[in-house]
Amino acid sequence: MLAHADHPISAPVNDANVHKLMARAVVAPDSHVLDLGCGTGTWLQRLLAERPGTTGVGVDSGPRTVEAARRSAEELGLADRLTLHCLDAKEYRCERRADAVFCVGATHAFGGLRETVLGCAEHLAEGGTMLIGDGFWERPPGEATLRALDCTAEEYRDLHGTVELVEKLGWQVVYAHTSTLDEWDDYEWNWTGSLTRWALTNPGHEAAADALEEAARHRTAWLNGYRGTLGFVTMLLMRND
C-alpha cells in the first residue's frame, strides 16, 4: 500500500490507458464487473464513478488493502454498488456471473497466465470480456534479469507467445495495450519513491529501515535487472466460440 501511494494502479499503465482499456472492456451502462486481485479497488472505483448504473465486486487477499478499498468506496459514495471480499482469488465463488472480469497485474494469484485465463473464465457471463494484464519478455532475459526477478526464463513468453497461449485456450485478443518504457519508469519511480519518502518522513517507525532497504532492493532489481527486458501487456479477451 505504501509503495502504491502515488500510483494506485498496481501495474505499469497510466491513467489515460486505464480509462481506454475500461471503456473497451465495459460497454453496457448496467454492467456487472469483477476484479480478481483488486488491491485497493482503484480500477473498479474509477469505473463505477464514471458509470452510475454499473456494479462491481472486488477480491483481494490483503486485509489492509481490502479495508482501504472499503473506506475509499464509502468516501466516494460507491459502497452500495461495490462488494469487497478478502480472500484468495482462486477461492472466490461468484453468486452472479460478470459481464467483464479484470485481473491486471495479479496473475500470480492464480499461478500464471494460463491459470488466470481459466480461473477468470469461470466467473464470466456468456458474451462477456476479460481484461488480463501480465508480463512478457521484450527480449530474451539474461542472468541479471532472472536473478532480479527470481524466476526462470520459462516463467514468461515473448509477446507473440503470450498471445498464442491465450488463443490456444480458446480466446481472441480484441484489443491490447503494451506498456511503454515511460509507463514502466513512472510506475517504478513511484513504487520505490513512495516507499523511500515514507521511510524518510517516519524515521522513528519500526519499519522505516526495512522500507528503505526494500525500496533500494527493488530499485536495483529494476535498474540493473529487468528494465527494458520485462514488458507488460493488458489484453482484452473474448471467447472464440
Describe this structure in words.
The chain has 241 residues and is an alpha/beta fold. The protein has a domain at 15-140 and 152-180 and 229-239: Vaccinia Virus protein VP39 (Rossmann fold), CATH 3.40.50. Helix content is 41%, strand content 23%. It contains 8 helices and 7 strands, in the order αβαβαββαβααβααβ. It has helices at 15-25, 42-50, 63-75, 113-121, 143-149, 159-168, 181-201, 208-226; strands spanning 32-36, 55-60, 82-86, 98-104, 124-137, 171-178, 230-239. Strands 3-2-1-4-5-7-6 form a 7-stranded mixed β-sheet, sandwiched between helices. It is globular and about 50 Å long.
Brief rundown of the structure:
The protein is of the alpha/beta class.
How many β-strand stretches?
Answer: 7
Mean pLDDT equals: 96
Oligomer: single chain
Task: Indicate the proportion of strand residues.
Answer: 15-25%
CATH level 1 class label of the domain at 15-140 and 152-180 and 229-239: Alpha Beta
User: How would you write the strand order of the largest sheet?
Assistant: 3-2-1-4-5-7-6
CATH superfamily of the domain at 15-140 and 152-180 and 229-239: Vaccinia Virus protein VP39
- H/E element order: HEHEHEEHEHHEHHE
Q: What does the secondary structure layout of this molecule look like, with pairings?
A:
Layout: H1 15-25, E1 32-36, H2 42-50, E2 55-60, H3 63-75, E3 82-86, E4 98-104, H4 113-121, E5 124-137, H5 143-149, H6 159-168, E6 171-178, H7 181-201, H8 208-226, E7 230-239
Parallel strand pairs: 1-2, 1-4, 2-3, 4-5
Antiparallel strand pairs: 5-7, 6-7
Output the keywords.
8 helices, SAM-dependent_MTases_sf, globular, methyltransferase, Rossmann fold, alpha/beta, CFA/CMAS, 241 residues, seven-stranded mixed sheet, 7 strands
